[in-house]
Amino acid sequence: MDDKLIKLVADFKRPSPRPYRAPPPPPKPPKRRAGGGVGRVVLGVCVLILGVGALGWDLLTPEPEETPFPIATDLPPAQVPEEPKVAEAPAPEKSDPPPPSPSLDVEQKPAPSEAAPAPKVVAEPKEPPPAVEPEPPKAQPEPAPVAPKPVPKPVIATGKDAPVWLRNAAAMPTGSDGPMIAIVIDDLGVDKKRTERVIALKQPLTLSFLPYATELPRQTEAARKAGHELMVHVPMEPLGAKNDPGPGGLKASGGAQATLKQLRWDLSRFDAYVGINNHMGSKFTADKTAMTPVIEELKARGLLFLDSRTIGDTTGASLAQALGVPNASRDVFLDNEPNSAAIGARLGDLEAVARRTGMAIAIGHPHDATIDALTIWLQTLPAKGLVQVPLTAIVKHRLEQGETPPNGG
Ligand SMILES: [Zn+2]
Description:
The protein is an alpha/beta fold. It is built from eleven helices and nine strands. Zinc ion binds near residues 186, 187, 233 and 279.
């Protein structure tokens, strides 16, 4: 027992030859630097391996410097993959006005704005990229959705305190409560013969006269006596040089003073109207800055605004709504094609809108085909359960119901 123990101790004390050890297997990338306690050779090998590993990692990792810029998370998915290449394209401050469209009613949305330019992220060369996916960029706060403005509900006074548009309104037919149809005929006054024909149509119509016609007091008085109500058909700048609104058209770039000067002249040409609608104006009505003094003047005078909707992105009715000005928008143009077949089809459309929504507004013009069609069609409404009303009846009804005009935005 003692001998064995002594031998064991002796063996333990005897210096043993140092066995050769192979360097540890190469660490897998990405590894942190090898710990202390290893010889210089091993350390050198490790550094070399780390270097090679880092190089290989660069080749394998998919282009970390092209990590999508944070704003890309807000983009519609279709745009994301294409964006990193582009290093320019500043976000447009203001989009150009949309080009004129052959179809006047097509909504023209501005093109979606480009992503803001992303400064190119340069990868740090010191460390290999982390094995995990880069943390998703912090989402940018989304622009707060524009809260719908509270719709000011105009007070409808009656009697002597009633606003001008109601005091000048044509009488509402009594005794029937079917879907309402308002027919507005504009461009009146210049063609005296056809203006007379329109005045002779079954009342009540809403008749809108061009301010530069020369016999307005006589014509408008005749129209009022026949049971129609009146509007001023204010010329406004259209898109396209070919279209001429006639003398005194309001210019989108004219400035508020020039606009008001012309508008006040337009409104001085005859009396007893209920409001205005735009003659042409596809450029002017799309310009909120240009339209603002017009709507404010109507508000000050207690008049209504009928948006003819000569372009899809008109601001007229929505601006009037925001400023508390009674307003409405045209549903159907009767005679863009002034022939009896097309006009008949549009009258059918008008009836359909009225049945669907309870009311409908048409705009027509003093063409013979339009007058001929209306002469017959207006007689058919009672049998169809439809009620011919002046425009003011629809505006008043919607105000009383607290409704927003369906085309008002
Ligand atoms: Zn017109």
